[in-house]
Amino acid sequence: MNNDPIGIFDSGLGGLSVLKEIRKLTPVESILYYADQDRVPYGPRPKEEIQKFSDEITRFLLEHGAKIIVVACNTASAAALESLRQTFPHIPFVGMEPAIKPAAEKTKTGAIGVIATQATFESERFARVVDRFAKGVRVLAQPSPDLVIQVEKGEFDTPRTREMLHHYLDPLLADGIDSIVLGCTHYSFLAKAIGEVVGDTVEIVDPAPAVAKQVKRVIDQQGLAASAPLTSNLKGAITAYTSGDPSDKADLPTQMLGESIHFRKP
């Protein structure tokens, strides 16, 4: 048993979608969350810069006792996950991967859409996933960088957000997709609006639940799971940091997570 916290980081608040799923599966685990809101979004940045940011944040989380690092950011996973594993070989890492496999297995039309940042689409990690799991399936990649900022502002279903979603998704619908893969953790918070734009015949594939299962699998296999609480309703603490301004939209993270969370400066 290990009562040290699970470390999670993202370019901003999108990783709370992963935190929420981890919380469902392992409620007794304490969690350290780092939102790099001063430098969000990561998508337009060079790979080397994202690697530098990811290295800095990982060191911060390890200094604060993290027993595992969850890279709850598709862009950072694509750019930095392999280098992080090489730099910190003694620490288990779990990263994001576009959920191409389940979408490709279920498609009836032979066409699936993916929305993500340009950096994710240009990565070797994305290319490998498509090559491995999408043989014979058309994968239509749609960069959607502006949506990250809409989520950071809490504009999950405003007219402007709807306008952006139609701009990004309507061409994919016209090409016959029957599933849309959310290739950015921020996009989970747009799922309701996305569902209304694409309609009931298009499945939304969110990788966050699968990532949470992998985190639980790793901590169980490596003997890192926290000890059981004395009472069944006891939850582990969440400690959250932001490189941005903690007072800016201070209530938004709690709204997104569905339980109280308060950010502080590192």
Structure description:
With 266 residues, the protein is α/β, with parallel strands linked by helices. Helices cover 42% and strands 16% of the residues. The chain has 11 helices and 10 strands. It has a 6-stranded parallel sheet, sandwiched between helices. The chain has a 4-stranded parallel sheet with strand order 6-5-7-8, sandwiched between helices. Helix 4 runs parallel beside helix 6. It starts with 5 loop residues before the first strand and ends with a strand. The mean pLDDT is 96.
From the structure above, extract its key features:
about 270 residues; four-stranded parallel sheet; about 15% strand
Write a compact overview of the structure shown.
By secondary structure, the protein is of the alpha/beta class.
How many DSSP E strands?
Answer: 10
Low-confidence stretches: none
SSE-based structural type: alpha/beta
Query: What letter string, H or E per element, gives the SSE order?
Result: EHEHEHEHEHHEHHEHEHEHE
Task: Give the % helix.
Answer: 40-55%
> On the 0-100 scale, what is the average pLDDT?
96
Q: Which strand order do you get reading across the main beta sheet?
A: 4-3-1-2-9-10
| Spatial gap, N to C terminus | 28 Å
Strand proportion: 15-25%
Largest sheet: 6 strands, parallel
Radius of gyration: 18 Å
The helix tally amounts to: 11
Shape from CA axes? globular
